[in-house]
Known about the structure:
two-stranded antiparallel ribbon; three-stranded antiparallel beta sheet
Amino acid sequence: MIKESVVDDSIIDLMNVYKMELWNTGGKPKYWTALYFTSDKADFPEWISEVMRSGSDGGNWFVDFKAANEKYIVLKDKILKYSIGNQAEKKYVCDECRKMGISEEQMNWPE
């Protein structure tokens, strides 16, 4: 998760952050803070969907993560998921992301 993609830092209290990196964006802001995490909260997708940035706050941000054999792509008030390996479900999720302005490059998430 990019820390700057959320409007409420208290979401971090629901995460177990195991790695943090600063990424030089070459723009504004100059750096993004990448948080690598796990969470034991079953309703974590719902919580994080409430605090993601969107629209006039700087575009449609998302966070991607895995839980068991499912890949989650969570945007403001929108939770998308697919079973890892199910290409039809993944295509649907990618199509929905495109509709929200997510670029092909950004959909290169690891499974």
